[in-house]
Design a protein that fits this description.
69% helix, mainly alpha, 214 residues
Length: 214
């Protein structure tokens, strides 16, 4: 964002917050914390599994808040899709990241280990951006917003666990660069899907030449 756009964003954030909260599925965020807390309280697994499961659950919760069913139905909007998503993430991502950190730091059964470490941060970032990218692309082509991020994340995890050795991404400490590449690809997918679908359709319509009358 340019400096002027950042200033404008800061001015409207406080006034827009109540309206943004009403328009998004924010209850999914605290609900994901509860699910993660129940998992940590009811299971005793390896710290690596704690990181994977908690990261998936919290990332899945965040994918709901950026779902924008109106993206493919509105002809135009005074606020761009990028700004709408930014407002939603500013309101929900910081508390979600803090909750993720505290859940792993306090609730994980990793005795004597400082959690989360750099690998856990990388995994959580990749899961979150991947889930958000899936929602972006679903919201760009259909009204199934909010129904794609979590299933896509679960499907990707199942595939990742079945990959052969030469393509494996687990254990993460042995394949950090592959996770960095995955994060970069997911970020690029997010950026390419941020344009309003209605604007794209409008540009196509304007660029299409009308047939000559006979």
């Amino acid at each position: 964002m340019t400096s002027a756009r950042l200033r404008r964003f800061g001015r409207v954030l406080w006034a827009a917050a109540p309206h943004v909260l009403r328009s998004m599925r924010w209850p999914a965020v605290p609900l994901s914390w509860v699910v993660a807390a129940v998992f940590l309280a009811r299971t005793r697994v390896e710290p690596t599994v704690d990181v994977i499961v908690v990261s998936m659950v919290v990332a899945g919760g965040l994918s709901f808040v950026i779902a924008d069913p109106a993206a493919v139905t509105v002809a135009s909007s005074p606020i761009s899709r990028c700004d709408r998503v930014a407002l939603r993430l500013v309101l929900t991502a910081p508390p979600a990241v803090l909750a993720w950190f505290l859940l792993l730091r306090v609730g994980s059964g990793a005795a004597g280990r400082l959690l989360p470490d750099s690998d856990a941060w990388l995994l959580f970032a990749t899961f979150t951006v991947f889930a958000i990218a899936a929602e972006f692309w679903a919201g760009s082509t259909s009204t199934a917003a909010g129904l794609v991020g979590v299933p896509s994340l679960l499907a990707a995890q199942v595939v990742a666990l079945q990959l052969p050795g030469r393509l494996a991404v687990y254990p993460l400490p042995d394949h950090r660069w592959r996770w960095v590449i995955l994060l970069a690809l997911a970020t690029a997918a997010c950026a390419s899907a941020l344009r309003d679908p209605a604007s794209q359709r409008g540009a196509t319509t304007l660029g299409r030449r009308r047939p000559a009358h006979r």
